[in-house]
Amino acid sequence: TEVVNVIGAGLAGSEAAWQIAKRGIKVRLYEMRPVKQTPAHHTDKFAELVCSNSLRANNLTNAVGVIKEEMRMLNSIIIQSADNSSVPAGGALAVDRHDFSGRVTDAIRNHPLIEIVNEEVTEIPEGITVIATGPLTSPALAEKVKEMTGQDYLYFYDAAAPIVEKDSIDMDKVYLKSRYDKGEAAYLNCPMTEDEFNRFYDALVAAEVVPLKEFEKEIYFEGCMPVEVMAERGRKTLLFGPMKPVGLEDPKTGKRPYAVVQLRQDDGAGTLYNIVGFQTHLKWGPQKEVLKLIPGLENVEIVRYGVMHRNTFINSPYVLEPTYQLKANKQIFFAGQMTGVEGYVESAGSGLLAGINAAKLAKGEELVVLPAETALGSMARYITEANPKNFQPMNINFGLFPELQPKVRDKKVKVEQLANRALTTIQNFMKSTAL
Ligand code: FAD
After folding, report:
1. Half-sphere exposure for 282 (CA within 13 Å, toward CB)
2. Is 434 exposed, middle or buried (0-12, 13-18, 19+ CB in 10 A)?
3. How far is the CA of 171 from the centre of ligand 1 (A)?
């Protein structure tokens, strides 16, 4: 009988292995730790949490709460272990990290259908294989992934500008225009007076940044400089860089603003916008304060903060199917941060779906894609349908869900309806389709 290979026993790989084995298929799970460590892991346990011990919000007013609930319905080993090792954390699901990864490790090690191979994989094995080696994939394997996906489709750093909800932008203050009116008007422009710029500038250079980790020091390559570092070069530097106003005259006044911040559509549905050239290392609190000084963004909802960190991920919109299969080789699945999902729970969620589909492939069954109305489905849709030219990893958020029809204005009601729709959709899907 067929054995499915899973590479990496992190958040995604552990979940994938569990889901495959639960479906009666043998798994060979490769994990290099402790033979070889990553720069962020410290133990030999599976699903080690490398930083925070929180799996974030646990209620349905937050999309990460909804995805957890969907994963509970699908018997996620990660969420079950987290529920069983939780510590008090208000509305969040935080865990005792040792108890948590211990539980995952025991469940996987004790499963009769899972064989564990403690070695670094440097060649992609034959047969159905789930690659889930995470943001710190070992260099030898990354090289193979690069060969397999194509030179230009594997990235080693995630230098992302903040992404915001369109609904939270003050449309009376911004205007739609492309520089010199070239092509279709594609950018939302936030115009600034000199005073507004100075206030923004002073806050930007004074804001607190996240210290870089040792293994992240090489991150500042050209073309990817954090906005605050560029700002430090001189008060006017940004005016010749991402905040350049030429060709962006305000159509209402016909005048050129002193500075302009541009927002570019980020998702197919047009509900999310990224702030062009604003990759940043600012801490989240100060980042929000600084962004709120941009005209039009006073009440902005940030769905993804700007980050700059080490991350290994493929350009999923180019290379991946919504089943988490590689377009060029349907025997190969990817899961976890490598697919451009972001976060512990999201990584496990992608592993869950990749695992279900890998098992289905092994059994000769039809593969599944969950409806985009579900959190798991919306995430798979985002990573495979986002703009491939500017693909950035993303946490789950309600902006990824298809809009309600008719549109609901009240934020609280909207979120409640999106969450209910997600859970009803997945329940119905599970009734009609054998997962
Ligand atoms: P991992 O959990 O890293 O699992 C990958 C596994 O593959 C590892 O066990 C690794 O040892 C193994 N492996 C790698 N290469 C090979 C190979 N060649 N052969 C065999 N095994 C291999 N997310 C949050 O939600 N909250 C946070 O606080 C947070 N902090 C982070 C801090 C850092 C420094 C980093 C890098 C990421 C952080 N993340 C955080 C992002 C992300 O959620 C985690 O990295 C998460 O662990 C990703 O899950 P994964 O399964 O994709 O990768």
Report:
1. 26
2. exposed
3. 39
Q: What is the mean pLDDT of the chain?
A: 94
Tokens of 214: 């040792």
Query: How many A from CA of 135 to the centre of ligand 1?
Result: 5
**Å from CA of 348 to ligand 1 middle:** 10
Q: Using most ligand atoms within 8 A of CB, pick from 133, 307, 313, 324 the residue to mutate for ligand 1.
A: 133
Q: Report how far ligand 1's centroid is from the alpha carbon of 43 (Å).
A: 12
Q: How far apart are CA 361 and CA 364, in angstroms?
A: 5
Q: What is the mean pLDDT of residues 281-285?
A: 94
Q: How far, in Å, from the CA of 158 to the mean position of ligand 1?
A: 14
Nearest CA to ligand 1 atom 46: 344
**Digit-coded pLDDT (tens) for 94-151:** 999 999 999 999 999 999 999 999 999 999 999 999 999 999 999 999 999 999 998 7
CB of 344 within 6 A of ligand 1: the answer is: yes
- Ligand 1 atom with least separation from CA of 13: 51
The most confident of the ranges 62-76, 181-195, 212-226 is: 62-76
Cα separations (Å) of 100 from 9, 12, 83, 104, 287? 14, 15, 9, 6, 32
Helix 411-432 and helix 63-73, axial crossing angle in degrees, nearest 10? 20
Burial class (CB in 10 A: 0-12, 13-18, 19+), 22: middle
DSSP labels, 120-146: ---SPPSSSEEE---TT--HHHHHHHH
Burial label, 405 (beta-carbon count in 10 A; 0-12, 13-18, 19+):
exposed
Ligand 1 atom nearest the C-alpha of 39 is 34
Is residue 333 lining ligand 1, measured as CB closer than 6 Å?
Answer: no
Asked whether the ipTM of the predicted complex exceeds the cut of 0.90, the reply is: yes
- Collapsing DSSP to helix, strand or coil, 331 comes out as strand
